[in-house]
Amino acid sequence: MLEQKKLIVSHAPFWHNGNRVTERSYHTILAALPAALAGLYYYGIPAVAVMCLSVATAVLWELGINLVAKRSIAIGDGNAAVIGLLFGMLVPATMPWWAVLTGTFIAVVIGKQIFGGIGSNAFNPVALAVAIMMVSWKHLFDFDGMLLNYDFAFATAYPISAAKNFGAPGIAKFDLWNLLLGKQIGGIGATFGLGLIFGGVYLMLRGFIRWEISLTFLAGVYCSAFLFNLMDPVRFVGPAFHLLTGYTLIGAFFLATEDSSSPVNTIPMLIYGAAGGIITVLIRSIGAYVDGVILAVLVINLIHPLLDKIRPKALGKVV
Amino acid sequence: MLRKTFFALTVPRIDYDLLPMVLPKPEKISPTKYIRLFHAKNGNQSSPTGFHVGDKVKTGQKLALYGDDPAYVIASASGTIRSISPYSGDFGKNYAAITIEIDTNEVYDDQFKAQAAEPNLDAALNHLSFIPGSPPLSTLSDTEQEIKTIVISGVDSDLLIGTRQYIVKSRFEDVRRGIEILKKISGVEQVYLITAGETVQTYGHLGAHVKSIDTRYPSALPQLIMKNVLGEVVPAGKTSADLGVCFFSSEAVASIGRAYMDDQIPVTKTLTLITKDGNRRLIETKIGTPIRDILETCDVSINEGDRIIFGGPMRGSAVYSLEHPIQPDTDGLLVLDRSNAAYTSEYPCINCGDCVRVCPANIQINVLVRFLEAGQYEAAAESYDLLSCIDCGLCSFVCVSKIPIYQYIKLAKYELGRAEASEETHA
User: Fold this and answer.
1) What is the distance between the alpha carbons of residues A40 and B390, in angstroms, rounded to a whole number?
2) Which residue segment(s) compose the domain that A253 sits in?
3) Distance from CA of B50 to the nearest CA of A (A)
4) Contact B249/B331 with Cβ under 8 angstroms?
5) Closest-CA residue in chain A for B362?
6) Among A193, A241, B283, B375, which residue has the least CB neighbours within 10 Å?
7) Does B6 touch chain A (CB under 8 A)?
8) If DSSP states are collapsed to H, E and C, what string results for B246-287?
């Protein structure tokens, strides 16, 4: 009766808790949606075009590389879509099509696939792409210039650059509550602070990103901005302003926390996040660039393998 | 089988399944036609000298196939040897599989009776190594390493299984007598009994210190018992025996006690059968009973592609045939439907760190697995704590990429052991 039945033999364990990479990607997309949709609402059709092109091309680049490298098709895991979405959220709504195409190429091909694909990238692909684009075509990331033709009911100046150029008097027209609600110009999905915080908290609670990184990043920004502000309240703006403007929130919740380029041990995660926050404010306050988040993320990506050497002692380790 | 929690701020907590207050009654299952016993074998032994096909054996008779080798098995039924064939187990272990056709009338062997009056270690070693629970008597008799402490594990080392807990609760007298005998034959004074989260008062006159451990998996593994109960950390690459501690399962101790109470060698193994729907049933059957007999009696149907696992879901080993017999150390028998079993993938590590957070031995698994994938086992052992692993399987359990991490680790340990052994022979 039972004669012909073939059994499957595999190695222990025979259970799995059911977590999958796909799940992580799609929940990240879900968490990013409130902020992204708010951006689409504020900037209208051009933003929709940029966002669609960004996601689509990121996925196509991934597919292309999969085919060229004769790997199994990996677009289903959603990682390329996340990269495309985040890239789209960081750029201005009037980004020309070729720049979006180039940006996603840098992110997916140079940022991720050249290193060996998912899990092997040393840097956050999105941060790398934005950094390269920022250096190569400076005017594309000059939000004041790019969004010149928009007519909003709120102050149409890029808050971070106003703070950089004019100090505390320059930001008098900005109200923190409006900043939180996204009434500021900037990247398509980077301005709606409330949505980003909401998404970030969701991801932290679900365990898809580590709270150690995000919270210390924000704490790093707050504390160092507070010290600068204390030093010279006229030249340096207050810490709450730093938290709600530029790429701070999207950086803390979506860029710095990328799995492959961030540490896994508790103490390294705390240092990693805090260092990111401090470098951000250093660049913003005394550096050459307007917003330091992207470069700060790249710097902490760079030091993450070293940080991860700080690890707990293994059971029974004899030194 | 396991429901995932919605929030995941902390690492997942999995608990050992404790038996209900009212103990379940074990079902008695007898082998129908034959039993099969796995006799350990060194690679170079070809033809058996002790016994041959056609020989009659009695229940409880010691079968030593090779004259110069101390290995033996105990016939768990009376009958005729029908075949002796080579069998390869996991990790290159060799056995001679002895198939015994069962006679209708059971005759008990009385070799052990003569020894039973005066318990001593040699007699026990010569007759009681193959009894239910597989007592590690050879560790006790090893002259190089003096054993100072005996730990009796009353908690099963894997999830879902309740065999050892059941033995402690239901065969108290056997365990008590077993401890007495063990103390006498080994000269060890310090004996611990490990239980899981329950009252200690009932075990007053047992002759052992009763210690209760956390019910969180994997706290019943020897290395963690050493650390949490005895306060000694086993150095990486060493065993607890190197520190003078010997681990017995509660069933092994109960079997020893029973052997000296009845003057004959016990052959009935208790085990937990976990069926496809997750129900647990206690089974009492003879060592050597093919699993087919058990599954047919319990009405468990097997489909193409199902998995049958000796042991539990985290650390067990899958078998490929329904003819596979119950071993002296088979505490659990898990039947998994093909749709419920975890599969692995060739997806790369994404460095999420879930394994690092869940590892009870604090190993940097995210880095270790990259060494293991590249086959660099020595570097893995030297720099990334491969040998600290306590074999709990939690890393594979939580792996987002479904990498068979635990399999890599076992393979690496096995390969390192082999390399070491060949170095010793060539030195």
Assistant:
1) 52
2) 146-307
3) 33
4) yes
5) A314
6) B375
7) yes
8) EEEEHHHHHHHHHHHHHCCCCCEEEEEEECCCCCEEEEEEEC
pLDDT reading at B20 higher than 90: no
pLDDT tens figures, B171-205? 989 999 999 999 999 889 899 999 887 655 566 67
Closest CA to A77 of A47, A118, A18: A118
Query: Taking the alpha carbons of A115, A119, A123, A129 in that order, is the dihedral positive or negative?
Result: positive
Q: What is the pLDDT of residues A6-43, one digit of tens each?
A: 899 999 899 998 889 999 999 999 999 999 999 999 99
Number of domains comprising chain A: 2
Check CB contact under 8 Å for A9 and B320.
yes
Listed residues A109, A140, A171: the one ending a domain? A140
B347: contact with A, CB 8 A cutoff: yes
pLDDT one-digit tens code per residue, A54-102 = 999 999 999 999 999 998 899 999 999 999 999 999 999 999 999 999 9
Q: Is A16 near chain B, with CB under 8 Å? A: yes
Give me the helices (H) in B66-162, please. 111-116, 121-127, 137-141
What is the predicted ipTM? 0.90
Q: A166-224: per-residue pLDDT in tens?
A: 988 888 888 899 999 999 999 999 999 999 999 999 999 999 999 999 999 999 999 99
Interface of A with B in 117-136 (CB under 8 A): 117-120
- The domain boundary, picked from A78, A111, A140, lies at A140
Domains, chain B, ordered by start? 29-109 (2.40.50), 113-262 (3.40.50.11540), 267-336 (3.10.20.90), 354-426 (no CATH)
Alpha-carbon torsion angle A202, A204, A205, A208, nearest 10: 90
Provide the CA B298 distance to its chain's centre, in angstroms. 23
